[in-house]
Protein backbone atom coordinates (compact mmCIF):
# COMPACT_ATOMS: atom_id res chain seq x y z
CA UNK A 1 0.00 0.00 0.00
CA UNK A 2 1.45 3.33 -1.04
CA UNK A 3 2.45 5.70 1.72
CA UNK A 4 0.01 8.53 2.26
CA UNK A 5 1.59 11.75 0.99
CA UNK A 6 1.71 14.39 3.71
CA UNK A 7 3.62 17.59 4.20
CA UNK A 8 5.76 15.82 6.78
CA UNK A 9 6.64 12.92 4.43
CA UNK A 10 7.53 15.34 1.63
CA UNK A 11 9.87 17.29 3.92
CA UNK A 12 11.48 14.03 5.10
CA UNK A 13 12.15 12.83 1.51
CA UNK A 14 13.64 16.20 0.51
CA UNK A 15 15.93 16.05 3.54
CA UNK A 16 17.03 12.45 2.86
CA UNK A 17 17.73 13.03 -0.83
CA UNK A 18 19.38 16.44 -0.76
CA UNK A 19 20.32 17.50 2.77
CA UNK A 20 22.07 14.47 4.31
CA UNK A 21 25.87 13.94 4.48
CA UNK A 22 27.02 10.79 2.66
CA UNK A 23 29.70 10.22 5.34
CA UNK A 24 27.71 10.39 8.60
CA UNK A 25 24.26 9.77 6.99
CA UNK A 26 22.78 12.59 8.99
CA UNK A 27 21.62 16.09 8.15
CA UNK A 28 24.37 18.53 7.16
CA UNK A 29 26.14 20.45 9.92
CA UNK A 30 28.13 23.38 8.51
CA UNK A 31 28.22 21.90 5.00
CA UNK A 32 31.37 22.46 2.89
CA UNK A 33 31.50 21.98 -0.90
CA UNK A 34 34.32 20.12 -2.73
CA UNK A 35 35.49 21.07 -6.23
CA UNK A 36 33.25 18.32 -7.64
CA UNK A 37 30.19 20.13 -6.06
CA UNK A 38 29.47 17.32 -3.58
CA UNK A 39 28.91 18.58 -0.02
CA UNK A 40 29.74 17.10 3.38
CA UNK A 41 29.76 18.18 7.02
CA UNK A 42 32.78 20.24 8.10
CA UNK A 43 33.54 17.79 10.91
CA UNK A 44 33.29 14.78 8.58
CA UNK A 45 35.76 16.37 6.10
CA UNK A 46 38.17 17.17 8.94
CA UNK A 47 38.08 13.53 10.05
CA UNK A 48 38.59 12.43 6.43
CA UNK A 49 41.63 14.73 6.08
CA UNK A 50 43.14 13.38 9.33
CA UNK A 51 43.22 9.85 7.88
CA UNK A 52 46.06 10.99 5.58
CA UNK A 53 47.71 14.05 7.23
CA UNK A 54 50.59 14.18 4.73
CA UNK A 55 48.29 14.59 1.71
CA UNK A 56 47.39 18.02 0.36
CA UNK A 57 44.23 16.74 -1.36
CA UNK A 58 40.84 15.30 -0.38
CA UNK A 59 39.21 12.50 -2.39
CA UNK A 60 35.42 12.74 -2.71
CA UNK A 61 33.79 9.57 -1.22
CA UNK A 62 31.08 9.64 -3.92
CA UNK A 63 32.81 10.41 -7.25
CA UNK A 64 36.52 10.00 -6.17
CA UNK A 65 37.45 13.44 -7.56
CA UNK A 66 40.36 15.25 -5.89
CA UNK A 67 40.11 18.62 -4.16
CA UNK A 68 43.28 20.62 -3.40
CA UNK A 69 43.58 21.89 0.19
CA UNK A 70 45.23 25.26 0.73
CA UNK A 71 46.91 26.74 3.79
CA UNK A 72 44.01 26.41 6.30
CA UNK A 73 42.86 23.07 4.94
CA UNK A 74 39.18 22.13 5.19
CA UNK A 75 38.21 25.52 6.69
CA UNK A 76 39.14 27.20 3.38
CA UNK A 77 36.63 25.12 1.38
CA UNK A 78 33.52 26.90 0.06
CA UNK A 79 30.45 27.00 2.30
CA UNK A 80 27.36 25.33 0.76
CA UNK A 81 24.99 28.28 1.34
CA UNK A 82 22.25 26.68 -0.78
CA UNK A 83 22.07 23.58 1.42
CA UNK A 84 22.25 25.73 4.56
CA UNK A 85 19.26 27.81 3.44
CA UNK A 86 17.31 24.68 2.49
CA UNK A 87 18.03 23.19 5.92
CA UNK A 88 16.75 26.34 7.62
CA UNK A 89 13.62 26.30 5.43
CA UNK A 90 12.90 22.58 6.10
CA UNK A 91 13.41 22.98 9.85
CA UNK A 92 11.09 26.02 9.88
CA UNK A 93 8.32 24.08 8.09
CA UNK A 94 8.77 21.09 10.41
CA UNK A 95 8.43 23.38 13.42
CA UNK A 96 5.27 24.90 11.98
CA UNK A 97 3.80 21.42 11.37
CA UNK A 98 4.54 20.37 14.96
CA UNK A 99 2.93 23.52 16.33
CA UNK A 100 -0.08 23.03 14.06
CA UNK A 101 -0.53 19.44 15.24
CA UNK A 102 -0.20 20.44 18.88
CA UNK A 103 -2.78 23.25 18.53
CA UNK A 104 -5.24 21.42 16.22
CA UNK A 105 -8.75 21.41 17.79
CA UNK A 106 -10.71 18.17 18.17
CA UNK A 107 -13.05 17.04 15.41
CA UNK A 108 -16.13 18.25 17.26
CA UNK A 109 -16.95 21.91 17.03
CA UNK A 110 -15.13 23.85 19.68
CA UNK A 111 -16.05 27.34 20.97
CA UNK A 112 -13.60 29.33 23.06
CA UNK A 113 -14.63 30.42 26.53
CA UNK A 114 -14.10 33.88 27.95
CA UNK A 115 -11.02 34.12 30.06
CA UNK A 116 -12.79 36.40 32.55
CA UNK A 117 -16.23 34.81 32.58
CA UNK A 118 -15.38 31.18 32.08
CA UNK A 119 -18.97 30.01 31.67
CA UNK A 120 -19.53 32.35 28.75
CA UNK A 121 -18.58 31.86 25.06
CA UNK A 122 -16.59 34.61 23.32
CA UNK A 123 -18.59 36.19 20.53
CA UNK A 124 -16.78 39.42 19.59
CA UNK A 125 -13.33 41.00 19.33
CA UNK A 126 -12.79 44.38 21.05
CA UNK A 127 -10.85 46.59 18.65
CA UNK A 128 -9.81 49.00 21.42
CA UNK A 129 -8.58 46.44 23.95
CA UNK A 130 -7.38 43.89 21.38
CA UNK A 131 -9.02 40.91 23.08
CA UNK A 132 -11.88 38.44 22.70
CA UNK A 133 -14.99 39.25 24.74
CA UNK A 134 -18.28 37.64 25.78
CA UNK A 135 -21.76 39.15 26.28
CA UNK A 136 -21.03 39.92 29.95
CA UNK A 137 -17.79 41.67 28.97
CA UNK A 138 -19.68 43.78 26.44
CA UNK A 139 -22.31 44.81 28.98
CA UNK A 140 -19.94 45.60 31.83
CA UNK A 141 -16.63 46.81 30.37
CA UNK A 142 -16.79 47.21 26.59
CA UNK A 143 -20.18 48.78 25.87
CA UNK A 144 -18.60 51.92 24.44
CA UNK A 145 -15.80 50.12 22.55
CA UNK A 146 -15.94 49.27 18.86
CA UNK A 147 -16.12 45.51 18.34
CA UNK A 148 -15.87 43.13 15.39
CA UNK A 149 -17.41 39.73 14.79
CA UNK A 150 -15.07 36.75 15.03
CA UNK A 151 -15.57 35.69 11.41
CA UNK A 152 -14.56 39.13 10.22
CA UNK A 153 -11.53 39.09 12.52
CA UNK A 154 -10.50 35.75 11.01
CA UNK A 155 -10.87 37.14 7.50
CA UNK A 156 -8.76 40.18 8.42
CA UNK A 157 -6.07 37.92 9.92
CA UNK A 158 -5.99 35.81 6.76
CA UNK A 159 -5.72 38.93 4.62
CA UNK A 160 -2.87 40.31 6.75
CA UNK A 161 -1.11 36.93 6.69
CA UNK A 162 -1.35 36.79 2.90
CA UNK A 163 0.20 40.27 2.64
CA UNK A 164 3.07 39.25 4.90
CA UNK A 165 3.47 35.99 2.98
CA UNK A 166 3.84 38.03 -0.23
CA UNK A 167 6.54 40.16 1.38
CA UNK A 168 8.32 37.06 2.65
CA UNK A 169 8.16 35.49 -0.80
CA UNK A 170 9.70 38.62 -2.31
CA UNK A 171 12.39 38.62 0.36
CA UNK A 172 13.03 34.93 -0.26
CA UNK A 173 13.46 35.66 -3.97
CA UNK A 174 16.03 38.30 -3.04
CA UNK A 175 17.98 35.59 -1.19
CA UNK A 176 17.73 33.28 -4.22
CA UNK A 177 19.09 36.05 -6.45
CA UNK A 178 21.93 36.62 -3.97
CA UNK A 179 22.70 32.88 -4.00
CA UNK A 180 22.77 32.90 -7.78
CA UNK A 181 25.14 35.86 -7.68
CA UNK A 182 27.36 33.97 -5.20
CA UNK A 183 27.36 30.91 -7.47
CA UNK A 184 28.28 33.13 -10.41
CA UNK A 185 31.00 34.72 -8.25
CA UNK A 186 32.56 31.32 -7.53
CA UNK A 187 32.39 30.30 -11.19
CA UNK A 188 34.04 33.58 -12.18
CA UNK A 189 36.65 33.19 -9.42
CA UNK A 190 37.44 29.61 -10.49
CA UNK A 191 37.71 30.72 -14.11
CA UNK A 192 39.96 33.67 -13.23
CA UNK A 193 42.10 31.45 -11.00
CA UNK A 194 42.57 28.87 -13.77
CA UNK A 195 43.32 31.57 -16.37
CA UNK A 196 45.81 33.36 -14.09
CA UNK A 197 47.49 30.08 -13.19
CA UNK A 198 47.83 29.28 -16.90
CA UNK A 199 49.34 32.74 -17.57
CA UNK A 200 51.89 32.28 -14.78
CA UNK A 201 52.84 28.82 -16.06
CA UNK A 202 53.07 30.13 -19.63
CA UNK A 203 55.28 33.01 -18.51
CA UNK A 204 57.48 30.62 -16.53
CA UNK A 205 57.72 28.26 -19.52
CA UNK A 206 58.66 31.17 -21.80
CA UNK A 207 61.33 32.41 -19.39
CA UNK A 208 62.70 28.89 -18.97
CA UNK A 209 62.74 28.46 -22.75
CA UNK A 210 64.65 31.75 -23.11
CA UNK A 211 67.20 30.73 -20.50
CA UNK A 212 67.55 27.26 -22.03
CA UNK A 213 68.01 28.83 -25.48
CA UNK A 214 70.67 31.18 -24.11
CA UNK A 215 72.47 28.32 -22.36
CA UNK A 216 72.31 26.20 -25.53
CA UNK A 217 73.73 29.12 -27.51
CA UNK A 218 76.64 29.36 -25.04
CA UNK A 219 77.04 25.58 -25.23
CA UNK A 220 77.20 25.66 -29.05
CA UNK A 221 79.80 28.45 -28.99
CA UNK A 222 81.96 26.51 -26.55
CA UNK A 223 81.50 23.30 -28.53
CA UNK A 224 82.64 25.03 -31.74
CA UNK A 225 85.61 26.48 -29.88
CA UNK A 226 86.37 23.06 -28.39
CA UNK A 227 86.18 21.35 -31.80
CA UNK A 228 88.49 23.96 -33.34
CA UNK A 229 90.93 23.71 -30.43
CA UNK A 230 90.92 19.93 -30.75
CA UNK A 231 91.59 20.18 -34.49
CA UNK A 232 94.47 22.65 -33.98
CA UNK A 233 96.10 20.50 -31.30
CA UNK A 234 95.52 17.33 -33.31
CA UNK A 235 97.01 18.96 -36.45
CA UNK A 236 100.06 20.00 -34.45
CA UNK A 237 100.54 16.42 -33.28
CA UNK A 238 100.01 15.00 -36.80
CA UNK A 239 102.49 17.50 -38.29
CA UNK A 240 105.13 16.54 -35.72
CA UNK A 241 104.49 12.87 -36.43
CA UNK A 242 104.78 13.34 -40.25
CA UNK A 243 108.01 15.37 -39.92
CA UNK A 244 109.59 12.75 -37.69
CA UNK A 245 108.45 9.94 -40.02
CA UNK A 246 110.07 11.78 -42.95
CA UNK A 247 113.40 12.24 -41.15
CA UNK A 248 113.39 8.66 -39.93
CA UNK A 249 112.71 7.34 -43.47
CA UNK A 250 115.43 9.59 -44.89
CA UNK A 251 117.98 8.25 -42.41
CA UNK A 252 117.10 4.66 -43.22
CA UNK A 253 117.38 5.32 -46.96
CA UNK A 254 120.80 7.00 -46.59
CA UNK A 255 122.07 4.04 -44.58
CA UNK A 256 120.96 1.68 -47.34
CA UNK A 257 122.69 3.79 -50.07
CA UNK A 258 125.99 3.93 -48.12
CA UNK A 259 125.90 0.19 -47.52
CA UNK A 260 125.29 -0.51 -51.20
CA UNK A 261 128.10 1.84 -52.34
CA UNK A 262 130.61 0.24 -50.00
CA UNK A 263 129.76 -3.25 -51.20
CA UNK A 264 130.45 -2.52 -54.86
CA UNK A 265 133.68 -3.53 -56.62
CA UNK A 266 134.33 0.01 -57.76
CA UNK A 267 134.47 1.27 -54.18
CA UNK A 268 137.37 3.58 -54.94
CA UNK A 269 135.40 5.35 -57.63
CA UNK A 270 132.50 5.99 -55.18
CA UNK A 271 134.63 7.02 -52.23
CA UNK A 272 134.00 10.73 -52.62
CA UNK A 273 130.25 10.09 -52.92
CA UNK A 274 130.35 7.84 -49.88
CA UNK A 275 132.11 10.49 -47.80
CA UNK A 276 129.55 13.12 -48.84
CA UNK A 277 126.62 10.82 -47.95
CA UNK A 278 128.24 9.97 -44.62
CA UNK A 279 128.63 13.68 -43.91
CA UNK A 280 124.93 14.15 -44.65
CA UNK A 281 124.17 11.27 -42.31
CA UNK A 282 126.35 12.89 -39.64
CA UNK A 283 124.39 16.12 -40.00
CA UNK A 284 121.19 14.10 -39.51
CA UNK A 285 122.26 13.20 -35.96
CA UNK A 286 122.13 16.88 -35.11
CA UNK A 287 118.46 17.18 -36.11
CA UNK A 288 116.14 17.06 -33.08
CA UNK A 289 112.79 15.26 -33.39
CA UNK A 290 109.62 17.30 -33.30
CA UNK A 291 108.22 17.09 -29.75
CA UNK A 292 104.69 17.46 -28.33
CA UNK A 293 104.24 17.39 -24.56
CA UNK A 294 101.36 15.93 -22.58
CA UNK A 295 100.59 19.45 -21.36
CA UNK A 296 99.90 20.46 -24.95
CA UNK A 297 97.03 17.91 -24.98
CA UNK A 298 95.39 19.74 -22.07
CA UNK A 299 91.81 20.94 -22.66
CA UNK A 300 89.43 21.68 -19.80
CA UNK A 301 86.24 23.55 -18.98
CA UNK A 302 86.31 26.32 -16.39
CA UNK A 303 83.05 26.91 -14.57
CA UNK A 304 82.12 30.48 -13.69
CA UNK A 305 79.35 31.77 -11.44
CA UNK A 306 79.07 34.95 -13.49
CA UNK A 307 78.68 33.25 -16.88
CA UNK A 308 78.26 29.86 -18.49
CA UNK A 309 82.02 29.21 -18.42
CA UNK A 310 85.02 29.08 -20.75
CA UNK A 311 87.70 26.75 -22.18
CA UNK A 312 91.16 26.41 -20.71
CA UNK A 313 93.78 25.13 -23.18
CA UNK A 314 96.86 25.31 -20.95
CA UNK A 315 97.21 23.49 -17.62
CA UNK A 316 99.54 26.20 -16.28
CA UNK A 317 97.27 29.00 -17.40
CA UNK A 318 95.66 30.93 -14.56
CA UNK A 319 91.88 30.69 -14.83
CA UNK A 320 90.70 33.68 -16.82
CA UNK A 321 87.95 34.52 -14.36
CA UNK A 322 90.11 34.40 -11.24
CA UNK A 323 91.51 37.92 -11.43
CA UNK A 324 88.18 39.46 -12.30
CA UNK A 325 86.49 37.44 -9.59
CA UNK A 326 89.02 38.69 -7.02
CA UNK A 327 88.45 42.23 -8.23
CA UNK A 328 84.70 41.83 -7.83
CA UNK A 329 84.92 40.21 -4.40
CA UNK A 330 83.84 42.60 -1.61
CA UNK A 331 86.43 43.32 1.05
CA UNK A 332 85.15 42.18 4.45
CA UNK A 333 86.74 44.30 7.13
CA UNK A 334 86.88 42.94 10.68
CA UNK A 335 83.89 43.82 12.83
CA UNK A 336 81.89 45.04 9.84
CA UNK A 337 78.35 43.80 10.45
CA UNK A 338 76.46 42.35 7.55
CA UNK A 339 72.84 43.41 7.26
CA UNK A 340 70.27 41.01 8.66
CA UNK A 341 68.55 40.94 5.25
CA UNK A 342 71.24 38.60 3.94
CA UNK A 343 69.56 35.64 5.68
CA UNK A 344 65.80 35.27 6.08
CA UNK A 345 63.70 32.68 7.85
CA UNK A 346 62.39 30.26 5.22
CA UNK A 347 60.53 27.77 7.43
CA UNK A 348 60.19 26.70 11.05
CA UNK A 349 59.26 23.22 12.29
CA UNK A 350 57.85 23.35 15.82
CA UNK A 351 56.14 19.96 16.29
CA UNK A 352 56.64 16.28 15.51
CA UNK A 353 54.61 13.08 15.80
CA UNK A 354 56.07 10.44 18.20
CA UNK A 355 55.92 6.83 17.03
CA UNK A 356 54.32 5.63 20.30
CA UNK A 357 51.62 8.30 20.49
CA UNK A 358 49.18 10.13 18.23
CA UNK A 359 49.65 13.28 20.30
CA UNK A 360 51.78 15.90 18.58
CA UNK A 361 54.74 17.16 20.64
CA UNK A 362 56.95 20.25 20.58
CA UNK A 363 60.39 19.99 18.97
CA UNK A 364 63.35 20.74 21.25
CA UNK A 365 66.29 20.18 18.88
CA UNK A 366 69.79 19.38 20.20
CA UNK A 367 71.84 18.26 17.18
CA UNK A 368 71.23 18.52 13.42
CA UNK A 369 72.70 17.53 10.06
CA UNK A 370 71.56 17.11 6.45
CA UNK A 371 71.47 14.39 3.79
CA UNK A 372 72.64 14.94 0.20
CA UNK A 373 69.05 15.63 -0.94
CA UNK A 374 68.71 18.29 1.83
CA UNK A 375 66.52 16.10 4.07
CA UNK A 376 67.24 17.09 7.67
CA UNK A 377 67.89 14.65 10.54
CA UNK A 378 67.71 15.93 14.09
CA UNK A 379 68.24 14.71 17.66
CA UNK A 380 65.55 16.09 19.96
CA UNK A 381 65.41 16.42 23.73
CA UNK A 382 63.64 13.12 24.36
CA UNK A 383 66.74 11.36 22.94
CA UNK A 384 64.99 10.42 19.72
CA UNK A 385 65.60 11.15 16.05
CA UNK A 386 63.24 12.88 13.63
CA UNK A 387 63.61 13.41 9.88
CA UNK A 388 62.35 16.50 8.09
CA UNK A 389 61.84 15.90 4.38
CA UNK A 390 63.16 18.67 2.11
CA UNK A 391 59.94 18.42 0.08
CA UNK A 392 57.82 19.13 3.17
CA UNK A 393 59.62 22.32 4.24
CA UNK A 394 57.22 25.24 4.19
CA UNK A 395 54.09 23.05 4.10
CA UNK A 396 52.03 23.69 7.24
CA UNK A 397 50.10 20.40 7.10
CA UNK A 398 53.19 18.18 7.09
CA UNK A 399 54.45 17.13 10.54
CA UNK A 400 57.76 15.20 10.78
CA UNK A 401 57.64 11.79 12.43
CA UNK A 402 60.00 10.12 14.86
CA UNK A 403 62.47 7.71 13.22
CA UNK A 404 62.35 4.11 14.33
CA UNK A 405 65.83 2.57 13.92
CA UNK A 406 66.53 -0.95 15.11
CA UNK A 407 69.46 -1.14 17.52
CA UNK A 408 69.52 2.60 18.28
CA UNK A 409 68.74 3.93 21.74
CA UNK A 410 69.33 7.33 23.35
CA UNK A 411 71.08 9.22 20.52
CA UNK A 412 73.10 12.25 21.68
CA UNK A 413 74.78 13.68 18.56
CA UNK A 414 74.25 13.07 14.84
CA UNK A 415 76.21 13.56 11.59
CA UNK A 416 75.83 12.50 7.93
CA UNK A 417 78.71 11.68 5.55
CA UNK A 418 78.89 12.20 1.78
CA UNK A 419 77.56 8.65 1.21
CA UNK A 420 74.37 9.55 3.11
CA UNK A 421 75.39 7.29 5.97
CA UNK A 422 73.90 8.33 9.31
CA UNK A 423 76.44 8.53 12.16
CA UNK A 424 74.90 8.58 15.63
CA UNK A 425 76.64 9.01 19.00
CA UNK A 426 75.01 6.98 21.79
CA UNK A 427 75.88 6.32 25.43
CA UNK A 428 78.65 3.79 24.78
CA UNK A 429 79.20 3.60 21.02
CA UNK A 430 79.08 5.40 17.70
CA UNK A 431 76.80 3.59 15.24
CA UNK A 432 76.77 4.01 11.45
CA UNK A 433 73.61 3.31 9.41
CA UNK A 434 72.87 3.37 5.68
CA UNK A 435 69.98 5.37 4.17
CA UNK A 436 67.60 2.47 4.86
CA UNK A 437 68.73 2.61 8.53
CA UNK A 438 70.49 -0.73 8.45
CA UNK A 439 73.49 -0.73 10.79
CA UNK A 440 76.80 -0.98 8.89
CA UNK A 441 79.48 -0.42 11.57
CA UNK A 442 79.96 0.69 15.14
CA UNK A 443 82.85 1.45 17.46
CA UNK A 444 83.12 1.85 21.21
CA UNK A 445 83.64 5.18 22.94
CA UNK A 446 86.13 6.05 25.63
CA UNK A 447 84.25 5.93 28.94
CA UNK A 448 85.23 6.49 32.53
CA UNK A 449 87.57 9.06 34.05
CA UNK A 450 88.82 11.38 32.75
CA UNK A 451 86.49 10.94 29.74
CA UNK A 452 82.92 12.18 29.76
CA UNK A 453 80.47 11.26 27.02
CA UNK A 454 81.60 12.66 23.65
CA UNK A 455 80.76 16.34 23.43
CA UNK A 456 80.81 16.65 19.62
CA UNK A 457 81.12 14.79 16.32
CA UNK A 458 81.95 15.73 12.72
CA UNK A 459 82.72 13.95 9.44
CA UNK A 460 84.89 15.09 6.50
CA UNK A 461 84.53 14.66 2.73
CA UNK A 462 86.43 11.35 2.89
CA UNK A 463 84.01 10.02 5.54
CA UNK A 464 86.66 10.23 8.27
CA UNK A 465 84.83 10.55 11.60
CA UNK A 466 86.05 12.94 14.32
CA UNK A 467 84.80 12.41 17.89
CA UNK A 468 85.54 15.16 20.40
CA UNK A 469 85.89 14.48 24.13
CA UNK A 470 85.14 17.51 26.30
CA UNK A 471 88.23 19.53 27.26
CA UNK A 472 90.65 16.71 26.26
CA UNK A 473 91.10 15.37 22.73
CA UNK A 474 89.72 14.48 19.29
CA UNK A 475 89.78 10.86 18.09
CA UNK A 476 89.75 10.17 14.34
CA UNK A 477 88.10 6.99 13.01
CA UNK A 478 87.86 5.60 9.49
CA UNK A 479 84.51 5.07 7.77
CA UNK A 480 84.35 1.45 8.99
CA UNK A 481 84.91 2.62 12.58
CA UNK A 482 88.56 1.54 12.87
CA UNK A 483 90.76 3.86 14.94
CA UNK A 484 93.08 6.20 13.01
CA UNK A 485 94.62 8.84 15.26
CA UNK A 486 94.26 10.89 18.47
CA UNK A 487 94.82 14.66 18.42
CA UNK A 488 95.15 16.67 21.62
CA UNK A 489 92.54 19.44 21.81
CA UNK A 490 92.69 20.97 25.30
CA UNK A 491 89.62 23.05 26.08
CA UNK A 492 87.46 21.66 23.25
CA UNK A 493 83.78 22.44 23.83
CA UNK A 494 80.56 20.91 22.55
CA UNK A 495 80.83 21.77 18.85
CA UNK A 496 83.15 20.61 16.07
CA UNK A 497 83.24 20.94 12.29
CA UNK A 498 85.63 19.97 9.46
CA UNK A 499 86.61 21.69 6.23
CA UNK A 500 89.35 20.44 3.88
CA UNK A 501 91.02 18.31 6.60
CA UNK A 502 91.01 21.16 9.10
CA UNK A 503 89.30 20.47 12.43
CA UNK A 504 87.60 23.61 13.76
CA UNK A 505 86.28 23.91 17.32
CA UNK A 506 85.51 26.41 20.08
CA UNK A 507 88.00 26.35 22.93
CA UNK A 508 86.14 27.06 26.18
CA UNK A 509 88.96 26.54 28.69
CA UNK A 510 90.29 29.83 30.15
CA UNK A 511 90.08 32.38 27.29
CA UNK A 512 87.53 31.48 24.61
CA UNK A 513 89.02 30.96 21.16
CA UNK A 514 88.06 29.75 17.70
CA UNK A 515 90.71 27.10 16.90
CA UNK A 516 91.62 25.22 13.71
CA UNK A 517 94.09 22.31 13.60
CA UNK A 518 95.12 19.94 10.79
CA UNK A 519 95.17 16.14 10.94
CA UNK A 520 98.71 16.21 12.31
CA UNK A 521 97.61 18.34 15.25
CA UNK A 522 99.35 21.49 14.01
CA UNK A 523 97.50 24.73 14.75
CA UNK A 524 96.25 26.45 11.59
CA UNK A 525 94.85 29.44 13.48
CA UNK A 526 93.65 30.37 16.94
CA UNK A 527 91.68 33.61 17.32
CA UNK A 528 89.98 35.24 20.28
CA UNK A 529 86.21 35.45 20.31
CA UNK A 530 83.83 37.41 22.53
CA UNK A 531 84.18 36.23 26.11
CA UNK A 532 80.52 37.10 26.80
CA UNK A 533 79.24 34.59 24.26
CA UNK A 534 78.26 31.01 24.93
CA UNK A 535 78.89 28.99 21.79
CA UNK A 536 75.78 26.98 20.78
CA UNK A 537 76.62 25.67 17.31
CA UNK A 538 79.39 25.52 14.69
CA UNK A 539 79.56 24.68 10.98
CA UNK A 540 81.22 25.60 7.66
CA UNK A 541 79.71 26.30 4.26
CA UNK A 542 81.11 24.78 1.07
CA UNK A 543 83.52 27.71 0.63
CA UNK A 544 85.01 27.27 4.11
CA UNK A 545 83.36 30.26 5.79
CA UNK A 546 82.78 29.50 9.47
CA UNK A 547 79.47 30.10 11.26
CA UNK A 548 79.09 30.19 15.05
CA UNK A 549 75.76 30.18 16.89
CA UNK A 550 76.01 32.05 20.19
CA UNK A 551 73.88 32.90 23.22
CA UNK A 552 74.46 35.79 25.58
CA UNK A 553 73.55 33.74 28.66
CA UNK A 554 70.71 36.05 29.73
CA UNK A 555 67.96 36.44 27.15
CA UNK A 556 66.32 33.60 25.23
CA UNK A 557 67.53 34.99 21.91
CA UNK A 558 70.65 33.77 20.10
CA UNK A 559 72.67 35.10 17.15
CA UNK A 560 74.73 33.55 14.36
CA UNK A 561 78.11 35.10 13.48
CA UNK A 562 80.30 34.55 10.43
CA UNK A 563 84.08 34.17 10.18
CA UNK A 564 86.29 33.88 7.12
CA UNK A 565 88.02 30.53 6.36
CA UNK A 566 91.17 31.84 8.10
CA UNK A 567 89.29 32.86 11.25
CA UNK A 568 88.77 36.58 10.60
CA UNK A 569 85.54 37.90 12.09
CA UNK A 570 83.05 39.20 9.50
CA UNK A 571 79.86 39.95 11.40
CA UNK A 572 76.41 38.88 12.61
CA UNK A 573 74.27 37.37 9.84
CA UNK A 574 71.01 36.73 11.71
CA UNK A 575 69.38 37.32 15.09
CA UNK A 576 66.46 35.89 17.02
CA UNK A 577 67.29 32.15 17.18
CA UNK A 578 65.67 31.05 20.45
CA UNK A 579 68.24 29.12 22.54
CA UNK A 580 70.24 27.60 19.62
CA UNK A 581 71.77 24.13 20.14
CA UNK A 582 73.39 23.35 16.78
CA UNK A 583 73.69 24.50 13.16
CA UNK A 584 74.46 22.99 9.76
CA UNK A 585 74.18 23.71 6.04
CA UNK A 586 72.14 21.68 3.56
CA UNK A 587 73.58 20.91 0.11
CA UNK A 588 70.95 23.33 -1.23
CA UNK A 589 72.67 26.15 0.72
CA UNK A 590 70.06 26.63 3.47
CA UNK A 591 71.23 27.27 7.03
CA UNK A 592 69.52 24.96 9.54
CA UNK A 593 69.40 25.95 13.22
CA UNK A 594 68.42 23.51 16.00
CA UNK A 595 66.77 25.53 18.78
CA UNK A 596 65.06 24.76 22.08
CA UNK A 597 61.64 25.36 20.55
CA UNK A 598 61.97 24.39 16.87
CA UNK A 599 64.12 23.66 13.84
CA UNK A 600 64.61 26.87 11.83
CA UNK A 601 65.64 26.95 8.15
CA UNK A 602 67.16 30.18 6.77
CA UNK A 603 67.80 30.96 3.12
CA UNK A 604 70.39 33.38 1.74
CA UNK A 605 69.23 36.61 0.15
Number of helical stretches of at least 4 residues: 7
Q: What is the terminal separation in angstroms? A: 78 Å
Oligomer category: single chain
Total strands: the figure is 36
Q: At the first level of CATH, what is the class of the largest domain?
A: Mainly Beta
- Helix fraction, binned, reads 25-40%
CATH superfamily of the largest domain: TolB, C-terminal domain
Strand-helix topology:
Layout lengths: L6 H12 L12 E3 L5 E3 H9 L6 E3 L6 E3 L9 E2 L1 H23 L20 E3 L4 E3 L1 H6 L6 E3 H114 L7 H14 L15 E3 L7 E3 L7 H9 L14 E7 L1 E2 L8 E2 L2 E6 L5 E5 L3 E5 L12 E2 L10 E4 L5 E4 L3 E5 L5 E6 L9 E6 L5 E5 L3 E5 L5 E6 L3 E8 L2 E6 L5 E6 L4 E6 L5 E7 L5 E6 L5 E7 L5 E10 L1 E6 L5 E5 L3 E6 L1
Helix pairs in contact: 1-3, 5-6
What are the key terms here?
605 residues; alpha+beta; Herpes Virus-1; Neuraminidase; 3 domains; 4-stranded antiparallel β-sheet; 7 helices; 36 strands; elongated
What can be said about this structure in brief?
The chain is α+β, with helices and mostly antiparallel strands and 605 residues long.
Notes on the structure:
31% of the residues lie in helices and 28% in strands. It is of the alpha+beta class and 605 residues long. The model is unreliable at 320-341 (pLDDT under 50). The strands form eleven sheets. A four-stranded antiparallel beta sheet has the order 11-36-35-34, with no helix packed on it. It has seven helices and 36 strands.
